[in-house]
Amino acid sequence: MAFNPFIYVAGLVMEAPLYHLVLEGLLVIWIFQLLFSKSYYIRKRPGLSAKEEEELIAEWTPEPLVPPCDDPPPENNNIVDKIATRTISINGEERLNLATTSFHGMNGDKSCIETALSAIDKYGVGACGPRAFYGTIDIHLEFEKRIAAHMGAEIAILYSYGFSTVSSSINCYCKRMDIVFCDEGANLAIKKGIEASRSKVRYFKHNDTDDLNTLLEEHARWERKNSRQAKVTKKFLVAEGLYNYYGDICPLKELIAFKYKYGARLIIDESYSFGVLGETGRGVAEYFGADNSDIDVVTVSMDHALGSNGGFAYGTAYMIEIQRLGGLGYCFSAALPPYLTASALKALELIDENPKLISRLKENSNYLYDQLWSLDGIKLSNHRDSPVFHLRLMAPTTWGQDFALLQRAAERINARGVAVTMTTYVRSEELILPEPSLRIVVNSCLTREDITRVSGVVSEVVTEMLDAK
Amino acid sequence: MATKRFTAHEFTRINLSEHNLGKQAKDFQPNVRQSHPKLHILYIFRFYFTYALIYLAGYVREFVHWFLPANSTYLPVDTEKNIRAGIQSVVDGHAGFYLRNVFLPVNACFHTPLTGSPSVKFEIRERKRNHIFEPLFELTGKTRKALNFGSYNYLGFAQNDGPCVEASKVTVEKYGIGMGSSRSEMGSLQLHRDLEKLVAEFLGKEDAATFGMGFITNAGNIPAILGKGCLLISDELNHASIVLGAKLGTANIRTFKHNDMYDLEKKLKKAIIEGQPKTRRPWKKIIVIVEGIYSMEGTISYIPSLIALKQKYKFYIWLDEAHSIGAMGPTGRGVVEYWGSDANEIDIMMGTFSKSFGAHGGYIASTKAVVSHIRRQTHTNYASAMTPGVAMQIYSSLRIIMGRDDRYPNDGQRRIRRLAENTRYFRSELYKRGLVVYGADDSPIVPLIIFTPNQLDIISRTFMHIGIGIVTVGYPATPLLECRLRFCLSAAHTRDMLDYCLHTIDDVSEMFGLAFLKNRPIPPIPFPTPHEQFKNFIT
Ligand SMILES: Cc1ncc(COP(=O)(O)O)c(C=O)c1O
Fold this sequence. Notes:
The structure holds two protein chains of two kinds.
Chain A: H1 5-15, H2 18-36, H3 50-59, E1 79-80, E2 87-90, E3 93-97, H4 110-123, H5 131-135, H6 138-151, E4 155-159, H7 162-173, E5 179-183, H8 188-197, E6 200-204, H9 209-225, H10 227-232, E7 235-240, H11 252-262, E8 265-269, H12 284-288, E9 297-301, E10 311-315, H13 317-320, H14 323-326, H15 328-331, H16 338-353, H17 355-372, E11 378-380, E12 388-393, H18 399-415, E13 418-419, E14 421-422, E15 438-441, H19 448-468
Parallel strand pairs in A: 3-13, 5-6, 5-7, 7-8, 8-9
Antiparallel strand pairs in A: 2-3, 4-10, 9-10, 11-12, 12-15, 14-15
Helix pairs in contact in A: 4-16, 6-16, 7-8, 9-11, 17-19, 18-19
Chain B: H1 8-16, E1 34-35, H2 41-65, H3 80-84, H4 93-103, E2 114-115, E3 121-128, E4 138-148, H5 163-175, E5 188-189, H6 190-203, E6 207-211, H7 214-219, H8 222-225, E7 230-235, H9 240-248, E8 252-256, H10 261-274, E9 285-291, H11 303-313, E10 316-320, H12 335-338, E11 348-352, E12 362-366, H13 368-377, H14 388-401, H15 411-432, E13 439-440, E14 445-451, H16 456-466, E15 468-469, E16 471-473, E17 483-488, H17 495-512, H18 530-534
Parallel strand pairs in B: 4-15, 7-8, 7-9, 9-10, 10-11
Antiparallel strand pairs in B: 1-13, 2-3, 3-4, 6-12, 11-12, 14-17, 16-17
Helix pairs in contact in B: 1-11, 2-4, 5-14, 6-14, 10-11, 14-15, 15-17, 16-17
């Protein structure tokens, strides 16, 4: 007889004990209930009719696109009308240049400009495409090669804008699960990079290694408890070589020690220390006699010492090659104009050939520091070797008042033939707003007499202002 | 200039015709056809199968390498010290696998180095690697001449001679290389101001601000107009810089389907009716961000329907014209002009100078209040101003486009017309051939879809061998299954160059079987451009 499933099942049912059947029946009912019932209940709002919806839409009035601004700050009327190196000409008035950050005047150097001109003759102006899509010009490759060799790194990567260099680099490695330990005083580019990466971030007090140690210890304790999660949580230490907002230098040796102790990757932004710190201007690692290869990624903006535009990052091929696919500012932006690359390359050569530039910059900085540090009512937050000076009030009141006071001081200093600026802070964007500061940027083109004059003017004005207060 | 007003509905209906190619809409509606042909299911199956094979080979490879010493994989490794300290690897998981096994083998078609300017005829530096899985290349020292179908040189201003370059050189001599200071400190030239004024005038806006990089123009300025309680609705295929800018703000972000005005309307309706999540308060403001031309799809955004929607839903529009400024519209003023719409309806017009102008940087044009707010809030207050040489290149090329340069009064117009003609010619030739081409009929970006990544490298090399440089794109810049070749047309391409390229495409498509639509090619271009369709309505 052929197999009849119906009879087979019926037989099973007949044979089974009753309690079995009841139990199975209940199970089947339960499964059906699980399958077809809603697992959650949404309390439905009473549905709106189409008319009500239309009314809601018609009623809604948005705020204006930007908040109204009652007292807009005056427009910046400082128009530069010549090349700014030792002096800067503003609205036809020649002043000593302590405002721009081209530390060696490479933006106006004769041979740099000549190189730039012949590069324009060869390459035109724009690169007209991202690096991956025919934006790579041989000069970019050459620059990457030379800068890597110069810094003793394996490879380097060239970005088209200084600000994007560090933020894209950070954003490329740090992912959602990771944790970043960052200095509170780091510049906006770094903080925006971290913000974009959506990683967890712990800010440690500015240049405070004890605080950092506490945070790292805390994290290590968490790791011991959650060892599985810890395996996928990468750690990063982020600092600046020479702080843009303070002019002081990061404790590199300690950072490196922490790096190996806690197994974190170290990212340093050397935008202001490249071409400045160290015997030959190779940055903060050289300054402390540390090994460059202990830093995983170094990022540098070329706006400053190299007097051009753009930026680069260097490190091991293992770290940097990832940026070619993951660095947003690299992948999704047009390459740096070739002529800016060529002139930066020339500037690098010049700095390399003349270590005197570095030592003169250091002398100038030291000299001005020695003149200004004892000034009453003012504190200098910068290091003695730093060419970036930040003058802050010894007795701060409110942010706005201090800013206004310092700004008036800056205006008077400018009026006496020394160009200085206030540090621009976009207040709503800064998580931790530094105190307002008057910034003086020393460069290596200035002579000793110039510095004497600067310190004279600054001391006079500051004393006057504070007395008047 | 007043144009006929349309309701949102009329335009959203046109949007549907995107999926029904060749559907004739009513005569008086401006019509733009955007092709996005669907393939037979068997093809799709084939592509998945190819991927499966690639992955399988990758897994086998990784398995074998597991037994081999680390240096035999050609891949760079972390330093000894880092490994000893137990620092986690930065490439792991699927991303690492994709990188090593799918991306590296085809790596050779990216980052092709040039020498000389990226004009329509350029010179490629040859390079080689010893092994297909090796990431780094060496230059061989040989060069090769080729036609450029890769650079974003829409109007042909990327040259190393001509008036713009000369002007730029003079400026470099006069003002130096970099500014070393931000615009808000001591990095402003009169040139910057003149440029901003000219850009504002060109776009028909009150004011404009310029920035040193196009990417940062989005990423560093979008946060400035967003705040708590704002909603940002962004096209799902928007550029990375827009996505980044949106992430940096504190606003809520939602996306709508690519260029789908129906979907946008749905999202808008829902947002306004439901208000903010949790608190249910109404949104403070809603900002919609779209691009003029999408650089990977070649699609053009539906500006008139966007404006019609805006009138009803009162949102603000941020329009990124990176690729369309200079390249679209009868006088090069971008997609707004192309559609015959009113620039005043677009709240913020953003664009870049790195494409049509052959320079670098970006702009934002809007009302005085908005621009000065952005000037105060931009992240570029911490970065260097636009370099003088670049600013001059933009200034002089913009003057040529506007016909202001007395020496070349008609040059700008000639270039714009040329580009439009080239685009229509090239696209209709491709349609005839049964190739899968995406995008609008008037978009100078022509993506030719080849679907799987395994052929990217060999196709790119075939083209290069014949003397044509094209862009090949794959995941993650495109969806996994839509790898493509991209041709960027230029006003400087001659008909001969286009024909040469088309011949090559014929051969390549035969070799690799790319004519997926052979039996039902995309129909010929039915419509004149919108501004031509509109001619009678513009009073
Ligand atoms: C839509 C869009 N926005 C912004 C950018 C960035 O511009 P830039 O290359 O000048 O940085 C691009 C460039 O690729 C783009 O396509």
